[in-house]
Write a structure and sequence with these properties.
Layout lengths: L9 H7 L5 H19 L8 H12 L5 H8 L3 H14 L2 E5 L7 E5 L1 H22 L4 H25 L11
Antiparallel strand pairs: 1-2
């Protein structure tokens, strides 16, 4: 499809371009950055982006300990502990003695933390829906299929190395 500006659509460029072409990866990176920035336009205060990563991990893996959380985040233990300290001060996280080991603490989202995450997700979904509603149903399907394939490829890359796609252990 040719746009109003006489350019080919991103889908046509992708179909017409060899997938190993460096411009395709660059264009994909730019598009993902634009999508990421759009999502960040929905304010997440009082939690920082690093704190949000912790909340999302705890939402998926309730009751994990600090060591496991650090592995999921690819972060050093002191950084993870400080993040949890701040989240506990906000009332989003609580540490509970483990039933399995007296030396471990389990991390749990509080009701306030769950409500915060649900409200933030609802606002982000509404913001994204405003944009995707301007797309055709077929374009939305192609976008979803492509993002699912990208997520699957990232998971395979991360699973193979045991670390993030860049291979680095990050600070939170």
């Amino acid at each position: 499809m040719v746009t109003d500006h006489g350019e080919l659509s991103a889908r046509q460029r992708a179909d017409d371009t060899d997938h190993t072409h460096p411009d395709l990866a660059g264009e994909l990176a730019e598009l993902l950055e634009a999508l990421w920035e759009h999502g960040r336009e929905v304010p997440s205060a009082p939690a920082s982006p690093s704190q949000l990563r912790v909340l999302h991990c705890l939402d998926r893996d309730e009751g994990i300990n600090l060591r496991t959380l650090g592995e999921l985040l690819g972060s050093a233990p002191p950084s993870v502990s400080r993040l949890c300290d701040r989240l506990e001060a906000l009332g989003f996280v609580r540490r509970v003695p483990s039933k399995v080991s007296r030396r471990e603490l389990e991390l749990h989202l509080t009701r306030h933390g769950r409500t915060y995450l649900r409200t933030l997700r609802d606002r982000r979904v509404a913001s994204l829906r405003e944009v995707t509603d301007r797309m055709t149903p077929a374009a939305r399907r192609v976008l979803l299929d492509g993002l699912v394939a990208l997520r699957d490829a990232l998971e395979q890359t991360q699973g193979a190395s045991g670390r993030g796609a860049d291979g680095d252990v990050r600070s939170a």
